[in-house]
Design brief:
Helices cover 0% and strands 45% of the residues. By secondary structure, the protein is mainly β.
């Protein structure tokens, strides 16, 4: 949460059912951690140097993330979208929730690919990980393309999209971390994986497509501007 005011000499932030509270600067921010999920009201009272002092009050509403901050897009969900020639998609009863999709690698040419479009609850910084099954995952250079909405506060130097190369053959039914990024709900936040790994197609290596997980680390700041008119 962030707030901003003008020409104020002091301010107080009061919270409902949260441990924080007390004097705060007229312009500042506060982060809440280790609190139960829910919606909380905060009262920001700003005092100017009028005589007698005049008070301006704003009520802020902040959502605290709970379990809803974990989103999984699996291969049987609406957000799992296949592209390319349907004759070159194969399925197997292994992997996350006992089902996955695979195809053969295709050198430097993209012919088949998958996009994962998550139903995210809110704007925030999310840690992304992909599930790699124990079978049909022999590609050495699977190139996961992460499309995110803005620079992440966790990895501020990243630009969208970021390509994360994973050697799938080294994982057996494991979640593989792909990094943490700022995402906003909508079509611009998604993950893409193609069959173009750059490896020799004659190797007949397989590339696996299974579940992807987004774990909310921190919500986007709630910015509140207080248009105060202060008179002495």
């Amino acid at each position: 949460m962030e707030w901003q005011s003008v020409d104020a000499t002091s301010a107080m932030l009061f919270t409902d059912d949260l441990p924080q509270g007390g004097p705060v600067p007229p312009t500042g921010s506060m982060q809440f951690k280790d609190v139960p999920a829910g919606t909380y009201g905060l009262r920001l009272v700003v005092e100017n140097d009028a005589d007698p002092p005049q008070l301006d009050q704003a009520t802020l509403i902040v959502d605290v993330a709970g379990d809803a901050g974990v989103v999984i897009a699996d291969d049987d969900d609406a957000g799992f979208v296949r592209y390319g020639n349907p004759d070159f998609w194969w399925e197997a009863d292994v992997g996350y929730d006992n089902h996955m999709v695979w195809t053969y690698i295709n050198g430097d040419m993209v012919s088949n690919w998958i996009e994962w479009h998550p139903d995210l609850p809110a704007c925030g910084d999310y840690a992304v990980s992909a599930f790699v099954p124990r079978q049909n995952a022999t590609a050495h250079e699977a190139r996961y393309e992460v499309y995110f909405a803005a620079q992440s506060t966790i990895a501020p130097n990243d630009e969208s999209p970021r390509v994360v190369v994973v050697n799938q053959s080294t994982y057996l039914d494991e979640w593989v971390p792909l990094g943490a990024y700022r995402f906003e709900p909508g079509e611009e936040s998604y993950l893409r994986l193609t069959d173009a790994t750059g490896e020799d197609p004659n190797s007949l290596r397989k590339i696996a497509f299974d579940a992807v997980r987004w774990e909310l680390q921190a919500r986007c700041p709630t910015r509140v501007l207080l248009p105060l008119i202060l008179r002495k």
